[in-house]
Amino acid sequence: MARGNRDHPRPEDFLMPEFETHTFDVLIIGAGGAGLRAAIEATERGARTAIVCKSLLGKAHTVMAEGGVAAALGNVWPEDSWQVHFRDTMRGGKMLNNWRMAQLHAQEAPDRVLELEAWGALFDRTPDGRILQRDFGGHRYARLAHVGDRTGLEMIRTLQHRAVANGVEVFMECKIIRLLKGADGAINGALGIWRESGTFVVFGAKSVVLASGGVGKIWKFTSNSWESTADGHALALWAGADLIDMECVQFHPTGMIWPPSARGLLVTEGVRGDGGVLKNRDGERFMFRYIPPFYASETADSIEEADQWYDNKRDFRRPPELLPRDEVARAINSEIKANRGSPHGGIFLDIASRRSADDIRRRLPSMYHQFKELADVDITTDPMEIGPTCHYIMGGVRVEADTTATTIPGLFAAGEVAGGMHGANRLGGNSLSDLLVFGRRAGWHAAEHALGRPGEVVLDPDQIEEHSGQALSFFEHDPNENAYGIHHALQDTMQDLVGIIRTESELIEALQQLDGLSERAGKIGVEGHRQFNPGWHLALDLKAMLSVAYCTTLGALERRESRGGHTRSDYPDPDPKYFATVNMVTRMHDGAVTVVHEPLPEMPDDLKVLFEEPHK
Amino acid sequence: MTVDDTRTTPTTQTPEESVTLSLWRGDARGGELVDYTVPAQEGEVVLDVVHRIQAEQAPDLAVRWNCKAGKCGSCSAEVNGKPRLMCMTRMSTLPTNEPITVSPMRGFPILRDLVTDVSYNFEVARRIPTFKPGPPQADGTYRMAQIDIDRVQEFHKCIECFLCQNVCHVIRDHEENRTNYAGPRYFVRLAELEMHPLDIIDRRELISRELGIGLCNITKCCTEVCPESIHITDNAIIPLKERIVDARYDPIAWLGRKILRRPDPTPASVAAAFALTSQPHIAPAKTGPPDISTR
After folding, report:
1. Catalytic residue numbers of A?
2. Which CATH architecture has domain A20-250+391-451?
3. Nearest to A58 by CA among B12, B141, B158
4. Which residue among A44, A130, A169 places its CB closest to the CB of B294?
C-alpha cells in the first residue's frame, strides 16, 4: 500500500544550515482579525510584511464570531458615546482592565468599523440606511454592528481581501514553534514548520507581531476551534515576555450541550440581545435571583420592566439575562448544580416564545441552521438547551497600551493573545473591536519599529538548530505516549480543576497533574512521517498548551478573591483593598514559571469621574 | 503500528453499536481505502468519528478542520461520494449497514489522506480587483438601504469550503480550464462586487474574457452542494452572464465603438490598472519583494 515515505527522519538529514529562509520588515503570526488588520496597516506604512498562519487563509477563529462588533457609533441610540462604552467595558472587566487600552478601544472602535465598510463589508442597516446596532450583555446601549449572526465571517473576508490586495505575503498552514532573538535580546525572527511538508522555515524580521488568538483547546468543553492552542502566549512566555491575568478565563454562558459531540459550540449572545430569555426546568426566568449588588442599580428587577427595555432604554433598566457573561455563566452553573437544569444537564434558552419565526430566521440564521442540523431542534418553536463553555482568555501578553509593544524589544501583540484590555471579564462584541483597534496599532508600531531599525537582522543558527532538533525528537521516541491521549487528559484536568469555580486544593492538585502531563508530553512518540502529520502537530501544540495551562493555574492559585472570569469558592468575594489593585504577572526565568503581583496602572482623575456619575 | 494492522473485520461481523468508516489513505503517488471501526456514539457527525479514529488508531491521519461548526469551510470531503462538510454531516443520516466512505475532494490534487491542495482557489482570488467605493456622504459615512444589500449579503455567506469548485465539471474534467475559468466560488465573489451598491469598478470584461464565465453551462452542480445554500447559479452566475451580454451586445454601444473606432476596453487594461497579471500564487516560497501598496 502506497502511503508515502514511512521512514522515520533522522535529525542529521535536517539540521543543515540550508534552512528555507525569508526576511521581512514585519512578520505577523496569525491571520485572524488582529493579524490581518495589522498586516494591512504595516503595508500601508511601507513595511514589507508577511503573515504566517496555521490554517488556510480565512479560516481563523475570527470567522466564528457571531453577534457583532461593539462601537459607540450612536446610530440607534444617539446618547451613546465613547465614554459610556469605556465605562461599560471597565465595569464589565471588574475594573481590572488596563484603563488606557479600554479608552483607546472605545474611542477608536467607531472609525475602525466605518473603515471596514469602506473596504466592502456590508453590515445590517437601520431604516435610514446606516449601520444597525444590536443589544448585548453589559452594553448600556444597542452598540453591536452586525451581519445577522455571522459578523466574524464578514470581518475576516473583508480584511482578507484588503490584505491580499495590499500585497501582504501569506504563508499558510505553517506553525511557528519558536521566536528567535538577536544578540541584543531583541526579537528578530521566528522558526516555523510547514504542515504540508514537515520541513522547517526560518523568518527573519525586524518586528514580530503576535496575533495568534486564544487558548480554548486547553479545556474540554470549548467554543474554540482547532487552532486555539495557546501558541502565541507560549511563544511570548518562552521568549521571556510577561503574561498578565492568565487566571481570567471567560466561560461563555451559552454553549450547546447536546448532542455530546456538539457540546461547547457557541450560541451567540445575540439570542439574548434580540429578546431570548433563560429558564430553568420549572420555566422560571431565574436570572432575576442572581443580580449582583454591583449591577443592581442598572438591572431590571421585574419581568415587566425588563421586557420594556428593548424598546425604551431611557426609562427602563436592562434585563438580567444581559448581565455580563461572568455573572450569567455563574448563575447558570448554580441552577444546574441545584438540580433545576434541563434534561441533558443544561438550562433553557428560549427565543421561540418571544419573537416571530421569521424574525428569528432573519436575525439568527446560523443559530437556526446549527440547531436544526446538529441537534434536530427548531429554535423557532422550541427552546435551546445550553450551558457554559470555555470561550476566551482575558489574560495575555503584557503590552504597552498605545503601541502594543511587549516587554521584549521588537515583539508586539494584539487581539486575544494580548492581555489587559478586557480586565477580568470581556463584554460580548468587544473582541472584534479589540482586534481592529489594536491590530491596527500593532501594525503601525511594528512597521515604525522595523523601518527605524537599520541593516539586516542576523539570525543565530544555534537557536534554529536547537529548536528544530527538539521538534524532530518526537520521531525518535517509542510511540507509547500518544499526543491525543495527553491532550484529552489535559482537557479533563483543566475542566475539572481549573474550570468556572476554583478552589485552592483543586488548583494545587491541577499543578501536580500538569507536572505529570508535561513529563509524559516530553516522551511522546510520533508515528509516521513528517508530511501533514496531525499527531506531530498536536505534540508541538501540546508543549504550548501545557506551559500556558500552568500559568493560568498558577495565577488562579495566587489571586485569592473572585473577580470576573476568576471565581474561587474559598474566596467568593472580590477583594477591593488589595487584589483589585494588582495584576498577576507570570514569567519564565531559567525554565521555571513564576508569578508576582504588580500594581495596575492608575486611571487619571478625568476618567475616574465617569464612574462616579449616577447612572440609572 | 502500521495502517494495515488497523484493518478491521468486515461489517457483517461488526456489532450494532459500531460504525465503520472507509477512509482514503495515501498521497500524490496513490492510495487506497482503509476500513476503521469504532464504537458508535449518540449524535455524532462524520468528523467526530474521523477524530476518534485519529486519536485511537491512526495518529498520522491527515485531515483539515478548524471550527467543527460549519462556519469555516475547512473539512470539505466526499462522504459516500457526495461532497460535504464532515462537521455538518450527521452519522444518523447515513446508512450504517455498510462502511461509510470518506475520500478527499476529487477536484483538487491530493496532498495526503483527506487533505488536498486548494491553492488554485487563492490564485484565482488574487486575479480579482478588490472592492473600491465611490465617495462617501458629507459626514464621511455611507448610506445603503437593507433592501439593496440583501442579495449581496447572500453572497457574503460563502465560507470558502470550495465544494462548488470541487464539483464544477468545467474544471473537474478539464484541467486546461484552470487558467481561464474562475469557478463558481469566484463568480459568487465577482457577483458580490458587481452588485455591491458602493463599488465603482467595472469587471465585466475581466469576467467574460479572462475568467471565462461563458464556459459555465448552468448545470447547477455548484448550487446543489453549497452548505450555505447560496443560489450560486440563479443569483450569481446567471445575472453575471446577463450583464456581460448586455455590455457586449448592446447595439448602441457596438455602433459607437465601430464608428469611433475605439478599441474595446481590454482585459489587459483592466488588469494593468490593478497590477494583477501574473501574480504569483499565495504561498509558500516566493522570491522577491512583495507588491507593497502605500495607499
Report:
1. 252, 272
2. 3-Layer(bba) Sandwich (3.50)
3. B158
4. A44
The secondary structure element, H or E, covering residue A209 is strand A200-210
* Proportion of chain A in helix, strand, coil states, percent, rounded to 5: 40, 20, 40
SS3 B231: coil
Radius of gyration of chain B (CA): 23
pLDDT at B283 over 50: no
Q: Is A165 within 8 Å of B146 when comparing Cβ atoms?
A: no
Q: Which pairs from A295-298 meet CB under 8 Å and 24+ separation? A: A295/A323, A295/A324, A295/A327, A297/A615, A297/A616, A298/A140, A298/A615, A298/A616
Which one, of A426, A561, A456, A554, lies nearest residue A137 by Cα? A426
* Residue type present at position A517: L
- The full set of domains in chain B, from first to last, is 3-116 (3.10.20.30), 119-273 (1.10.1060.10)
Angle, helix A99-118 to helix A82-92, in steps of 10 degrees? 130
For residue B141, give the nearest of A60, A114, A266 by CB distance.
Answer: A114
Pairing assessment for the beta strands A20-29 and A49-52 based on DSSP bridges: parallel
**Three cell numbers at A195?**
504542515
The answer to whether A291 and A301 have CB atoms below 8 angstroms apart is yes
What is the Cβ-side half-sphere exposure of residue A579, based on CA atoms within 13 angstroms?
Answer: 24
Q: Which residues of B touch A169 (CB under 8 A)?
A: 283, 286, 290
Average pLDDT over residues A82-108: 98
For residue A14, what is its C-alpha cell? Answer: 535536517
Amino acid at A313: K
For residues B18 and B11, give the distance between their C-alpha atoms in angstroms, rounded to a whole number. Answer: 9
Amino acid at A554: L
CA–CA gap between residue A196 and residue B28 (Å, rounded): 12
Q: Which secondary structure element, helix H or strand E, spans residue A180, and what is its range?
A: strand A174-181
CATH architecture entry for A461-599:
Up-down Bundle (1.20)
ipTM of the complex: 0.93
Count CB atoms within 10 A of the CB of residue B119. Answer: 16
Structural domain boundaries in chain A: 20-250+391-451, 253-389, 461-599
Residue A32: pLDDT band with limits 50, 70, 90: very high
The three cell numbers of residue B112 are 495526503
Cβ of residue B72 closer than 8 Å to a chain A Cβ: yes
Predicted confidence at residue A573, as pLDDT, reads 96
Grid cell of B289 as nine digits: 519583494
Q: Which residue has 476568576 as its cell numbers?
A: A566
- Its pTM stands at 0.91
Q: Is A122–B196 a contact, with Cβ atoms under 8 angstroms apart?
A: yes
Q: Which of B70, B162, B71, B157 is nearest to B115 (CA)?
A: B162
Please say if the pLDDT value at position B12 is more than 90: no
Q: List the beta bridge partners of residue A596.
A: A585
Q: What amino acid occupies position A77?
A: W
C-alpha span between B244 and B259 (Å, rounded): 22
Top residue of A261, A451, A531 to mutate, by most chain B CBs within 10 Å, is A261
Query: Confidence band (pLDDT; 50, 70, 90) for B253?
Result: low
**Cα–Cα distances in Å, from A177 out to A12, A54, A369, B7?**
19, 11, 37, 35
Set of chain B residues whose Cβ sits within 8 Å of the Cβ of A479 = 1, 59
A287 exposed, middle or buried (CB, 10 Å; 0-12, 13-18, 19+)?
Answer: buried
Fold designation for A253-389: Flavocytochrome C3; Chain A, domain 1 (3.90.700)
